[in-house]
Amino acid sequence: RTVYVNGQYVPENEASVSIFDRAFLFADAVYEVTSVLDGKLIDFHGHITRLERSLSELGINFKVDADALLAIHRELVSKNNVTEGLVYLQISRGAASDRDFMFPAADVAPTVVLFTQSKSLIKSALAERGQKIVSFADLRWRRCDIKTVQLLYPSIVKNEAAKKGADDAWLVLDGKVTEGSSNNSYIVTRDGTIVTRELSHDILHGITRKAVLKCAAELDLKVEERAFTIAEAQTAQEAFTTSASAFVCPVVEIDGAVIGDGTPGPIAKRLREIYIDANRAAAI
Ligand code: PMP
User: InterPro entries from the xrefs (predicted)?
Assistant: First the structure.
């Protein structure tokens, strides 16, 4: 694979960053993951808008040039012959000359790294059978709206979920579901209303969430943006998650309770199809 590091395209085994990089020592970095279908980028500008916000919330001194970043994404997709998969972009505050909690002087250049991953996204065994979810306390820091590389807790709960025979974890804060380990969470009530937590510092403002809520509005489906409990989810008609890499992915079990008839629900399946069709057509 060819990867991108600070202006250079290099083979992955020749890429290097400093051990004093603040991403490495302090998780002081933000990232975006953009999916690729037919060799084209899905909702690129949505990701760039969120990237700018994450950088600005952390005061990382990187001037986003959407056209330049688009060119790098395209170049990597092309060099690595990615037809379906992901582009990962990470920007850290940069490498200081030593380990220091204080931020380095503003003239330290941010570290910019991109790489691709080829994988099948549309055909998904998980989406076909539906995910089993288990819940965990949401012990993350309280600025989950900033897309930082501080992913230890989500990674731990994903592993704990797997140990329990499940596919993923949903996080619970003050009795209500915030979101999944790396996706936004939804239920569909028995009267057909889609419910997903409102935007706040407690969840990542998913690019796919926004696009899927737009699809739901176009289908005249009712949407309520509010928090829900695990108990409410367990008696819901359907449940699903959204993320850039898994699109809309149905949920069929939550903490041992079967959702609906235990197979992916019709609204989740419909939203998955419509989301893929609309965003594939608009890919750049
Ligand atoms: N929440 C969390 C915690 C995530 O890590 C992700 C995936 N990055 C999402 C939600 C979904 O966001 P998006 O639709 O932008 O991929």
Answer: Aminotrans_IV, Aminotransferase-like, BCAT-like_C, BCAT-like_N, Class-IV_PLP-Dep_Aminotrnsfr
Question: Is the domain of 146 the same as that of 229?
Answer: yes
State in Å: Cα 107 to ligand 1 middle: 31
Q: Domain limits at 19? A: 2-118
The one catalytic residue in 40, 132, 147, 269 is 147
- Ligand 1 contact, 30 CB (< 6 A): no
pTM here is 0.97
Query: Do 155 and 75 sit in the same domain of this protein?
Result: no
Q: ipTM exceeding 0.90?
A: yes
| pLDDT tens-place string over residues 26-36 | 999 999 999 99
Residue 107 has pLDDT above 90, yes or no: no
| Average pLDDT, integer, range 44-56 | 98
- Does 147 qualify as catalytic in the annotation? yes
Ligand 1 contact via 116 beta carbon (within 6 Å): no
Neighbour tally for 132: CB within 10 Å: 20
